[in-house]
Amino acid sequence: EDRSLDDQQRKAVVTDEDNNLIIAGAGSGKTTTIIGKVHYVLDKYKVDSEDLLLISFTKRSANDLKKRLKKDEVKVKTFHSFGMEVLKEVEGKYPRTLDDDENSTVFKHLLTKLFKASLEDRKYINKVNKFVIDYLREPKSEFDFETRGDYYQHLRDQDFSTFKRVPSYSDKTTFKREVVKSIEECKIANFLLFNGVEYKYEAKYKSPLPFDYFPDFSLIQDGKTIYLEHFGINKNWQVPPFFARDGETHKQATKRYLGDRNKKIELHKNNSTTLIQTFSYEIWNNDESFYDMLRQRLVDAGIRLSPKTPEEIWQIINDFYRNEEKDLIKLFGTFITLMKSNQYSMATVKHKLTKIEDGFLRKRGQLFLDIIKPIYDGYEAHLAKEKVIDFSDMINKATEYISSRKYKKKISYVIIDEFQDISIGRYNLVNEIKKSNPGCRLFCVGDDWQSIYRFTGSDIALFKDFSKYFGVTEQSKIETTYRFHNPLIDLSSQFIQQNSNQAKKELHSADRNKKTNYQIIYSRKDDTNTLIDIFNELVGIYDDVEDKKITILARHNFDLKNRVKNENGLLSIDKENNISYRSRIENGDFKNIRANFQSVHSAKGLEADIVIIINCNAGKYGFPNQMSDDPTLNLLLSEADQFENGEERRLFYVA
Q: What percent of the chain has pLDDT over 90?
């Protein structure tokens, strides 16, 4: 490639043990090292190019590797194309696959179709409703938090808001979900909504009083108002730690809170208004028993319940949760892919579920398995009916043919790029190649800090514990990055290495005189910085901004339209998400800024002069995305990949 290798790259190339793992840093020349290795084994050891299996994970990376290698006799394959070759060799023809395009949306469309078909069953809708309402988010009691700020952050991170539609404060024509002050109040509000009870949250008490009083819920029916107060009290009649004011002990806070409760009871008694009381400890004992208790207290107070049908409840959920349904289906896809890649049966997963000690997670997992089972069964039935196989089936069949020696092609070297994305299924394939070809050597290059394809079955345990899976291994590192510099190197390295399950690296710049600076732009609580604001700021920083390659990255594809406000008509976006903006400068002239928007997944491996990462906010659909680290996936993942937000942390590092 007309460039010299650095010392670490040279050592990696000439080291030639049975198993070799090259732990690489971002921008450290992984592809260059692989090209060096290919040339080395062909020229130094005179290995026949036909005996060399060179694999990269995607068509794009394989094509790039092929182009840079400049050796037509060396075939660069993906796992997909190699698996197809094995099946063709043994079966005499290529199999019919779900879709030949590795990035196909056919899988997702099929799961969506099966999910919607399952929703025709009322029992099934009830399970989905229950999962979304009570189990999608992992609730924590107020008593688990030391500060009010930490508790409110948890509410925001998990997006605990009711399903009631309330007008948006910023826009009179739109609605948003109602925000309440606790998870417990959220559960009560949803129960009232789904049982047809009209209510107002924290409305002012109407009877004349010498002070303002705002009961938690004012229940309105037949012209009468009945009040419901929810008290944050545990079974020992104590309040959460953060209820204490400055200079107040927990005991004093509890005494004050109980005194306020008694005043409210007395007030309602004096004004002949009905008060229903609920308590924290009643909810955390058991959701179902609490709902039964609440139902009875409402009826006893004269409230008439009109329960909505499961279909009506799902429609209410769907009004606000269109993204949630898509993410739920994406979760189904990840779960099925991991399960098949690991060669687990549904019975195996259920057995693993019984070993979970946390009661909430165990119930949640059981409910999730009940929801996904008909989808999985329908998916497998579809494959059988259409006589097609999916990627996991294809890899598993290819592995079986190699193991049984039905595939007879000799392989002397296996060289794998992007090894951090390896899955159990792909590992089994590679391992059987080594078993059936004594003396076959393995050379794998990857950066576990950039492992971001869990939804295709990848598990970083295979990288972390490489020698456990493949045997005695020689490890090398390439840690000089040619992509970026300090201070970003130190910041990003410190950030990603919070996960002790990942390899330790000391990344350093190839040019210590250069800098890669970063800037964090904070937005107000209910406001987001528009791209126009950011573009105008860039104009003030870079004189040559018109000549810069600018990439805008986001966790989700829909983040772009949610962040674009084009009040002045100077911004345009085409179908390929190319963005143009005319920024007015001081003398009245314009500067023309061009940028391209991509999701982080699609942009991996690319580079730009300026990178803007938008929507770096806590929340269900922020960055990190809470759905992607769903705890149910832990049933299928090794312990090495169960660090909190581990995959999302790696994805942010890639960005």
A: 66
